[in-house]
Write a structure and sequence with these properties.
The protein is α/β, with parallel strands linked by helices and 521 residues long. The protein is built from 18 helices and 20 strands. Strands 6-7-8-3-9-10 form a six-stranded mixed sheet, sandwiched between helices. Strands 16-17-18-13-19-20 form a six-stranded mixed sheet, with helices on both faces. Helix 3 crosses helix 4, helix 7 crosses helix 18 and helix 12 crosses helix 13.
Length: 521
């Protein structure tokens, strides 16, 4: 097995002309090699991967050639390429919702691939194989996960399922495009160890595309750096820098003067239950169990925990995107539980939510200009269209996107660029509280540090509060303030981030810290 790219150049159409995203890229991956592609989000990494697989978007113009064992892949028909892209090459994409069928149960999707690759298998043997594959990627209680639909899984759980699907054909080369952005630090460590062991045991080559130097240091041996669509250097993975560091954040502090007597947000004994069905039986999942939390005006607070612990359910219950099953929510003294209609819509403008998956939250039929103007028009902000457009340009500059991005659509951007658009849209309405659900997971370390500084500056200069949900304690330490550690739907530890970093009391916090320090080592 040998994959070789020779002189690959890619240009994408835009209203202002062609945008060159890759220029004369050449590289080679040999049998059993573990290699990485590193660079800033939006630098062309994912586009290079898609060019290698023949999955470029419609209308793309490209030159060069891709060879597998000396055979040009561009010459393959669609059916031939389909056979190759499972048996010979397995792919884990950055956004698992793209690769999962929303109307089929997770187990059925894995069964379909196993039948495709292994032919007809007895029903019992097929179920045993599905259970084995799900356990292999860290999904314990496989019968439970196999019976669910993708939307019933957390982002990290969906990514683990996508890995199981990619490995179903026992490929010779596994390509992983930002594979760990949706995983908590403990599962990130387990994923890296798992894939490394599988690659060694099977003699499988590994190509990891990531903006996270910590991930590449622990998963590959050598790394290409892509900058502005060009390969600029190649070096050993151990020479990569450390990811986010607290001492590089430009605006220090993050410690707000907490005023519990007059909090901005209060959660009292909050419960969130999800009801699912398994055949004729009904099952209740207790996602949030009796959480009490107070957030002061101008405070930045972090909520940390492994994927599936209930963080996202708690965050979505605050603006009532999902209905709480019990307890009380107060925002600026208002009982959120009692609001409806126009009053609830007005409240949500004051506490926008930045979702983990930007592609699912951005409208693919609206340009960037319309994505950012629409919230301001709805809220009747800034008086005139000229003032709104001026604010749009300021927001693009804030999130480091060029002005020519205004007339492009979300699908023309990388995952990290789409996340920057989602953050800009949330800031467009002048929020009082910013709810961030893994908002920085798709950004490279430099941009993560810039946004952490931005959150602190918004706190200091505009009094905006931030509730920052993440699984990465390194980001939390860089951000500062107070942190709540969540496990199995409950807050198990709470206090200043430095105190928890230095002396964690709960076993769950110790495990998260151990994984974070291992990644940074």
């Amino acid at each position: 097995m040998e994959l070789q790219l020779v002189g690959v150049s890619v240009a994408l159409p835009s209203p202002s002309g062609w945008v060159q995203v890759l220029e004369e890229v050449s590289l080679r991956i040999e049998p059993g090699e573990r290699v990485g592609l590193w660079g800033r989000s939006g630098g062309g990494k994912s586009m290079l991967l898609r060019a290698a697989l023949g999955l470029l978007p419609p209308g793309a113009r490209w030159q060069g050639e891709v060879y597998w064992d000396g055979r040009p892949l561009r010459a393959l028909s669609v059916s031939e390429r389909r056979r190759w892209l499972g048996r010979r090459i397995g792919v884990v994409f950055q956004e698992p919702l793209w690769t999962l069928n929303p109307v089929r149960r997770c187990g059925a999707q894995l069964e379909e691939l196993l039948r495709c690759y292994r032919g007809s298998l007895p029903r019992r043997r097929l179920r045993e194989e599905v259970s084995l594959r799900l356990r292999e990627v860290g999904l314990e209680e496989p019968e439970r996960w196999a019976a669910r639909y993708p939307h019933e899984l957390s982002g990290g759980q969906r990514q683990r399922l996508a890995l199981a699907l990619a490995l179903a054909g026992d490929p010779e080369l596994l390509i992983a495009d930002e594979p760990t952005t949706a995983l908590d630090v403990r599962m990130r460590v387990r994923w890296l160890e798992l894939v490394g062991e599988l690659a060694r045991r099977r003699g499988m080559a590994l190509w990891v595309v990531s903006h996270d130097p910590d991930v590449l240091r622990h998963s590959v041996d050598r790394v290409w750096r892509l900058e502005g669509g060009r390969l600029v250097e190649e070096h050993p993975a151990r020479a990569l820098p450390v990811g986010v560091r607290a001492d590089r954040i430009s605006v220090g502090g993050g410690e707000a003067e907490v005023a519990p007597s007059n909090p901005l947000l209060q959660l009292k004994n909050l419960h969130v239950h999800h009801r699912t069905r398994r055949g004729w039986r009904s099952e209740v999942i207790h996602a949030v169990r009796g959480v009490d939390l107070e957030l002061a005006c101008g405070e930045v607070m972090s909520l940390v925990g492994r994927s599936g612990c209930g963080k996202s359910s708690l965050l979505r219950a605050i603006p009532r995107l999902i209905e709480p099953s019990g307890g009380e929510i107060r925002f600026e003294g208002l009982r959120v539980n009692e609001l409806d209609g126009e009053a609830l819509r007005l409240l949500r403008r004051r506490m926008p939510l930045v979702f983990q998956d930007p592609y699912a939250s951005l409208n693919p039929r609206l340009s960037v200009r319309e994505q950012l103007l629409e919230p301001m028009r709805t809220a009747e902000l800034y008086g005139s269209e000229e003032e709104r457009l001026r604010r749009v340009r300021e927001l693009l500059e804030l999130v480091e996107l060029p002005e020519d991005a205004l007339d492009r659509y979300p699908q023309a951007f990388s995952g990290g660029q789409r996340q920057r658009l989602a953050i800009a849209r949330a800031l467009s309405v002048g929020p009082r509280l910013l709810l961030c659900d893994e908002a920085l997971s798709m950004l490279d370390a430099e941009l993560q540090e810039q946004f952490l500084s931005l959150f602190q500056r918004l706190q200091r200069e505009q009094g905006i509060s931030v509730l920052f949900v993440t699984h990465d304690l390194r980001l939390v330490r860089a951000l500062g303030g107070r942190v709540a550690v969540m496990a199995e739907g409950r807050i198990v530890e709470f206090g200043p981030v430095e105190a928890i970093w230095q002396e964690p009391r709960h076993p769950e916090t110790r495990l998260l810290l151990q994984a974070a320090r291992w990644l940074a080592a």
